[in-house]
Amino acid sequence: MRLALIPLTLLCLSAADRPNFSGDWKMDADKSSFGQLPRPVEYERTIDHKDPLIHMKVRQVSQMGEQTVDMTLRTDGQETTNKSRTGEGKTTGKWVGRDLQLITTREVDGGEAVTREMWSLSEDEKTLTSVTQMKTPRGAFEVKMVLNKR
After folding, report:
1. DSSP 8-state class, residue 36
2. What is the rounded distance in angstroms from the CA atom of residue 121 to the CA atom of residue 63?
3. What 3-state class would DSSP assign to 29?
4. CB-count exposure of residue 59 (10 Å: 0-12, 13-18, 19+)
5. pLDDT for residue 54 is more than 80
6. Is the Cβ–Cβ distance between 112 and 104 less than 8 Å?
7. Which of 2, 61, 82, 126 is the right S-S partner for 42, CB 3.0 to 4.6 Å?
């Protein structure tokens, strides 16, 4: 009987150890890298994280103007659908240890784009690092964005 309780206890402990991404985050341009993609002039995320739901507002300023996107994500493997000016994306999120993996698919340029994004939070909870691997009909890209809590 005691052995049956141990895995449940470990499951609860690991869930309690997961980070909470809530906060206002601003891109640290010097620590971020965009490869061949143009770097935004400004990038901010406002995140409200109440596991398994994450509500996020993204504000980005680029040479093409300002864009704001509101989205809902989940951490429990259930798919969410969000719309932006580039179309509709379907995202599935799940925990990988203390990191959150988000896989999004969308139709672009007559093909499919798939992004695999991994969020990690520093121990002091002041730095959110997002590493995104993108595969599109135009090629593969990697973006590393470092955001500081404001």
Report:
1. T
2. 29
3. coil
4. middle
5. yes
6. no
7. 61
Burial class (CB in 10 A: 0-12, 13-18, 19+), 21: buried
> Are the beta carbons of 68 and 56 closer than 8 angstroms?
no
Domain range annotation of the chain: 20-149
Q: C-alpha 130: how far from its chain's center? A: 6
Spatial distance between the Cα atoms of 94 and 66, rounded to a whole number of angstroms:
30
The fold adopted by the segment(s) 20-149 is: Lipocalin (2.40.128)
Instruction: Work out the average pLDDT over 105-111.
Output: 89
The reported pTM is 0.86
Question: Tens digits of per-residue pLDDT, 123-141?
Answer: 999 999 999 999 998 899 9
H-run or E-run covering 45: strand 42-50
